[in-house]
Amino acid sequence: MLLGTLALYVGANFYIFVRLTQAMCLVPLWLRVAFGVLYWLAACGMFVSFGLRNIALPEFLHRTLHVVGTSWLLFTLYMAVALVVADLAHWVWPSFHHGVWYALGITLAVLVAGYINYRNPRVEHMTIETDKPIEGGRMRLVAISDVHLGRGTTRSDLARYVSIINSENPDVLLIVGDLIDNSILPIEREDMCREFERVEARYGIYMAAGNHEYISGIEECHNYLKTTPVQLLSDSVARPANGVAIVCRDDRQNPRRAKLDSLLTESDKGSFMVVLDHQPNAIAESQKNSIDLHISGHTHRGQVFPLNILTDQLFEQSHGLGTTLLDNLNQTISGVDSLVDDNSKNITLAIASLNSVMRDLKQSNIIGNIDGFCATLNKNGAKLDSIMTDVGAVAHSLSEQNLGEKLNKAISDVDALLAKVNSGKGTIGNLVSDEKLYKELAQASQNLSALLADLKENPKRYVNVTVFGKKTYEEKQADKAAKAADKAKKKAKK
Fold first, then answer.
1. DSSP 180
2. How far apart are CA 171 and CA 99, in angstroms?
């Protein structure tokens, strides 16, 4: 894999170099030679930077090599793609000329746009509801990942990130690995993590290791972070005073990392459980252990297009919010639909048998068929009760998620149906007395299925997610009120 990637990088650079030198055919030879030397130095910049990362050279030299190396990697990716498109366009339309310069212009524009995006990190808000006990009834978590502090992300950058973190009024700050890039040397030189002393998180800062902490030297990272407010935990559970269990898993770089279930105690399982696991490859393990919130980083979602396509294939959840809830609902509702379909004939036969008996009773006062009719009802009673139980379970699952007015309406319909069943002589009694009950049951199941389909197509209608760090008016007013109350408490203490 590594050798294949290296070969692809070298091949792409050779292709770009040939096409650029062809376009510079009218340029003096000495300039083309100078260009060639600079070109291949830049192409090797990433490897040189990594090889010298722990050497005590002047920091400006380290940063120059790092910036040139990482920038050239992105330049190679987009320039190669743009050149292929330009060359194909010339092959299809021979009149299309100067494709090299078009490709270069497009590549530079993309790099500038990417840099602007990098300098303006976005904040994503998500609301999670739970019935587990949390001090004060609510908690504000702020999670960050893949800061890569060092030659690329400087102390001044971290200071800016801390200001963004504080603007979110965190109760806890969670760091999901790769806080440190490839070397601890520049971190120690400038004591960069001292900026975390400004974080206003009353329950502390907790961090799980990432693969880059191992590249930098995991022991060195541990020793340095002990001098800062950041608690780097490996295969450990932190239990802040707010009743939340924070499980910090060691990175997969450690082949001997502990199994998740071995880290949990019964007291943890009664708490709201948050797992920090840098690489998103063990989400199913968190599901199995009934973890309430699993947070990972690592992928950067490929960092740039089209690498995001690759990460989406390699990882269980490459980015964004997982769909476990929707998948579980789909299974539950499908099960209800199956039960209804499987038993529809039995229900129809039972009602038909009832009608036959009633006709016999009216015509000749014969009651011998009643035994057969009762046997039919008794035979299907357990199945009918199972149907009603499963529909009730779906309604409960949906109601716990608080997913919006449409779902609440569907749940109310199901509740009304269940109340109708329970108010009479049991499931069988109501089927006998009201032939509409089955139709109502089938319709309720169809409604839930339709809403599930809408959930999958338009999840943001039902999940409270705000992008770009924008807060609602209500959130802003609540924040102002909380700050005013804190100030009043401090004055009263004085």
1. B
2. 54
For residue 25, count other CB atoms closer than 10 A to its CB.
7
Tokens of 332: 């539950």
CB atoms within 10 A of CB 187: 23
Backbone φ, ψ for residue 276 (5° rounding): -105, 115
What is the CATH number that goes with domain 125-321? 3.60.21
Contact 343, 384 (CB under 8 A): yes
Residues 6+ apart with CB under 8 A from 228: 193, 194, 196, 197
Query: 3-state secondary structure string, 225-290?
Result: HCCCCEEEECCEEECCCCCEEEEECCCCCCCCCCCHHHHCCHHHHCCEEEEECCCCCCHHHHHHCC
Torsion of Cα atoms, 102 then 65 then 299 then 306, to 10°:
10
237: alpha, beta or left? (left if phi > 0; alpha if psi -120 to 50): beta
DSSP annotation string for 444-490: HHHHHHHHHHHHHH-GGGTS-EE-TT---HHHHHHHHHHHHHHHHHH
The first and second tokens of residue 485, run together, are 């109350």
Q: What is the dihedral of CA 60, 64, 65, 66, to 10 degrees?
A: 100
Phi first, then psi, for residue 199 (nearest 5°) are -70, 130
Sketch the domain layout of the chain as residue ranges.
Answer: 2-119, 125-321, 326-461
Can you give the pLDDT of all 494 residues of the chain as single tens digits? 678 888 999 999 999 999 999 999 888 999 999 999 999 999 999 999 999 999 989 989 999 999 999 999 999 999 999 999 999 999 999 989 889 999 999 999 999 988 888 888 888 888 888 888 887 778 899 999 999 999 989 999 999 999 999 999 999 999 999 999 999 999 999 999 999 999 999 899 999 999 999 999 999 999 999 999 999 999 999 988 777 899 999 999 998 999 998 999 887 888 899 999 998 888 888 888 888 899 998 887 666 777 777 777 777 676 766 655 445 445 444 544 454 455 444 545 544 554 554 455 445 444 444 445 445 545 555 554 554 455 455 445 544 444 445 555 665 665 665 565 555 544 444 444 555 655 665 566 566 566 656 655 655 454 443 333 344 444 555 666 666 667 666 666 55
Instruction: Locate all alpha helices (DSSP H) within 93-217, ordered by sequence.
Output: 99-119, 155-167, 185-190, 211-216
- For residue 358, list its beta bridge partners: none
**Terminal Cα distance for the chain, rounded:** 63
C-alpha–C-alpha distance, residues 377 and 388, integer Å? 16
Cross-strand bridge partners of residue 233: 208
Alpha-carbon gap, residue 462 to 452, rounded angstroms:
11
Distance CA 78, CA 104 (A): 9
With CA atoms as reference, report the closest residue to 452 among 332, 338, 341: 332
